[in-house]
């Protein structure tokens, strides 16, 4: 009998962990607005509305809508805050909103995921919906085995059902699924739901002034430098 693997599936938070949303969104804002706004500040402000916009859905105060809807609502609010008009070119504004489908991978992501994929099921465990995550994978070359979007689980992290329903769709008990994330709070919620956990730092996710998630804040099952190092550690664990 060969060595026992720690888990059967290694799933990944996507925005910030696998793809660099800040540079991708900043570039898309620049294409839309030129130098009319500070594109990094606009990207950060747009992203800052991400979790608050999902809270009414997690709390049961709003029916589920997918991330394209929430991103567009948040874009409208952010554009108004920055004095950036959207109404003059609705198709360009729609294209800007879909920039979340076209984000670049971090430099280690594709090679690292390919290594993890040799021994484990790999896929996103993300608040993105299936079409968004599929488009992102095609754009960035992400080698997922499976894509389970929030439109299938019908909820958003850190609701426990986001983790548990994903494991259920894979027909795996929670303890046979690992979440890898660059966000300690995401891992807290995954561990509370019974999943294994792995942390990798993305210290420039929010830019040079980032002050949180610079390091692991708990004894996660694996703490790695990046996804390639995660693959190595998982392989060593099974050797």
From TrEMBL:
The keyword NAD does not apply. Keywords: Hydrolase. InterPro entries: 2-HAD (IPR006328), HAD-like_sf (IPR036412), HAD-SF_hydro_IA (IPR006439), HAD_sf (IPR023214), PGP-like_dom2 (IPR023198), S-2-haloacid_dehalogenase (IPR051540). Signal peptide: none annotated. It comes from the Bacteria. GO terms for molecular function: hydrolase activity, acting on acid halide bonds, in C-halide compounds. It holds the Pfam family Hydrolase. NCBIfam families: HAD-SF-IA-v2, HAD_type_II. Belongs to the HAD-like hydrolase superfamily. S-2-haloalkanoic acid dehalogenase family. This is 2-haloacid dehalogenase.
């Amino acid at each position: 009998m060969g060595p026992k693997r720690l888990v059967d599936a290694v799933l990944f938070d996507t925005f910030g962990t696998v793809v660099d949303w800040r540079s991708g969104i900043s570039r898309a804002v620049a294409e839309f607005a030129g130098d009319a706004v500070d594109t990094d500040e606009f990207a950060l402000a747009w992203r800052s509305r991400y979790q608050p916009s999902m809270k009414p859905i997690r709390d049961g105060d709003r029916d589920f809508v997918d991330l394209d809807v929430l991103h567009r609502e948040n874009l409208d609010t952010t554009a108004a805050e920055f004095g950036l008009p959207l109404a003059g070119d609705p198709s360009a504004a729609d294209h800007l909103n879909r920039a979340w489908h076209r984000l670049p991978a971090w430099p280690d992501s594709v090679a690292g995921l390919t290594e993890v994929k040799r021994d484990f099921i790999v896929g996103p465990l993300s608040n993105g919906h299936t079409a968004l995550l599929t488009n992102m994978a095609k754009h960035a070359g992400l080698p997922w085995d499976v894509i389970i979007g929030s439109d299938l689980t019908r909820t958003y992290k850190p609701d426990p059902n986001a983790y548990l329903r994903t494991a259920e769709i894979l027909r795996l008990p929670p303890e046979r699924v690992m979440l890898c994330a660059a966000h300690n709070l995401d891992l807290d919620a995954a561990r509370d739901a019974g999943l294994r956990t792995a942390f990798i730092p993305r210290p420039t996710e929010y830019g040079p002034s980032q002050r949180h998630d610079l390091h692991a804040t708990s004894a996660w099952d694996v703490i790695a430098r990046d996804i390639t190092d995660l693959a190595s550690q998982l392989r060593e664990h099974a050797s």
